[in-house]
Fold:
Amino acid sequence: MIQNVRCPHCGSDAIYGYGHVKNGKKRYLCLMCNRQFVLERKPPLIKDRPTCPLCGGRMHIYMRKGREVRFRCAAYPDCRGYLKMLS
Structure:
């Protein structure tokens, strides 16, 4: 058993070290629900979401890639507005 690690799905502490993923992070296996997971730092929250440049509506986070955050209009697919920002 591994100390201070809990399954994000069921909350069990019956965890087994299960190798590493491609990028080198440690992978775990929950012995209770049989799910695999990687402990990962949560990305920072973005408090002020931008407004759509096309319709003026709210935008949602569509994708995170490195420090880049991509937003898409909440009215998608009717409105196809998007923005790219660095976090």
Summary: Residues 1-40 form one domain. The mean pLDDT is 87.
